[in-house]
Amino acid sequence: MNDPKASSADRGWLKNDARHIKYGNKSGLRLPRNGRKSPGRKAKDKGYELAHPYNAPASKGNNYSGAKLKNHADHLDCIDVGTNMKSMGRMHEKQIENLLKQTPHNRYEYFIRYCADFEQVWGLVVGEDNWVIFKDDNGDEIFPLWSHPDLADTCCFDEHRKMGAIPQAIDLDSFIQNCIPDMESAGVYFGIFYDKLRVGLVVTSEELKIALEEEGSAWDG
């Protein structure tokens, strides 16, 4: 409850529960925002839940030693996506729809969390190794990326689909060590989670590298 990485609201929640326990009004701590009368309890964000990592699901007999607190929406994604780290399950249409309703910044944060956990990023490729890179309205070259092949396929621009573009995975370590430096040298930016309306978040190579490495370090403990 004194963890500086936790929000002040969550620390306050835990301290308040600890005070109630001290005076005998409660028997244990609740996860933040998971109270019966919590605001948003019936909304999309239902508070935090203890979630297994994607590669260590409860269905495979894993205990909670590697589990982390996730908000309700992210936990559902963890359950829906699949259990094999290199064999993604299909995303539900409603899940894709809900993600596309998020702001570009929220989609970017989702991308960072998901890719750091799953250790892959997804782009579009034409033929064997012709990665899709397009120019935006400012004339900048953009390398579009998504966190899942179904998202890449759904958001593929019509002109790229006509070219035969299909989703292709890049191992995260290879992406950080090889692809990011190559794109930085070529002056190419990364477009994260673009939708079919060409709305996404453009970031520099350095920004993306730092975000992925920091999130990866958080998962490694």
What does the model show?
The protein contains 8 helices and 9 strands. The radius of gyration is 20 Å and the shape is elongated. The protein has 221 residues and is of the alpha+beta class.
List keywords for this structure.
single chain; Trna Endonuclease, Chain: A, domain 1; three-stranded antiparallel sheet; alpha+beta
Query: Which ranges are low-confidence, i.e. pLDDT below 50, for 5 or more consecutive residues?
Result: 33-46, 52-57, 72-87
Task: Using the coordinates shown, work out and report the CATH topology of the domain at 104-221.
Answer: Trna Endonuclease, Chain: A, domain 1
CA-CA gap between termini: 18 Å
Q: Find the structural class using helix and strand composition.
A: alpha+beta
Reading off the top of the CATH hierarchy, the class of the domain at 104-221 is best stated as: Alpha Beta
Outline = elongated
